[in-house]
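Before going further, it is useful to explain how the protein records used in this thesis are read. An example of such a record is reproduced below.

***
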Amino acid sequence: MKPTAGRTGRGLVIGFSFKMYFGYQQTLDWCLRVREIAAASPAILDGSVRLFLMPSLPCLLPVIQMFRDTSIEVGAQNLYFEDRGPFTGEVSGQLLAEVGCRLVEVGHSERRRMFAESDEVVALKVAAALRNGLCPVICVGEEEPSDAADACRESTRQLESALGRIPRDPRIVPVIVAYEPLWAIGAEQPAPENHIAEVCRGLREFTTSVRPDTADRVIYGGSAGPGLLERLGEGVDGLFLGRHVHDPNAMQAVLDEAGQASRIAH
């Protein structure tokens, strides 16, 4: 039996972060191919699957332009928590929104580990994203392998902290929660399906009971790729993809799976 976390049937969310793997032209070539794939995808065309892409900052403008007349959303991999000022090398949510970004990634384990971003910094960045009308993709997850109950407690703690500066307001742009256990990022295999489903269930229960005004979807990232959605069934609301879709054909496979899963859910 496939694990379930009680997905509501509102469709699936598929996201892809380019990280720092692609060059400029490679990014544009990949996006052009995915634009063609999406244009032929019934699930994208009827809105049952939501797709977002997060290229490197120098590629944002041409990628936004490429997808401007489509439903595909473009986001940034990072932002600063101030809207303007003497912050060399940073980019503000205000600027990202002005150029046409729709989302921004916040709290990824690599940012926490490599750039010393604390829970407080993550909360400030979430607040900066929301006040500028950007949907934050809030990454949470445990560092070391553990049982699902412990993983859920740590992930929920991170999420509660990330939302700590957000007022309770139904007009707030809904956030996306990305469960990404650090130990599964870059691994040969994703976390076990039952583990993913249980942690995502716990995160969804938290957002439903404690912060129903802010949460939209709970998706999974961490060596996610083609075939995982089929194994998870209703265990997640989507996937946050990385290196496993560097080949656009792999993205097509994931979109096909997402479309099939959405049809079954309805």
Strands lie at 12-17, 49-54, 73-76, 103-106, 135-140, 175-179, 215-221, 238-241.
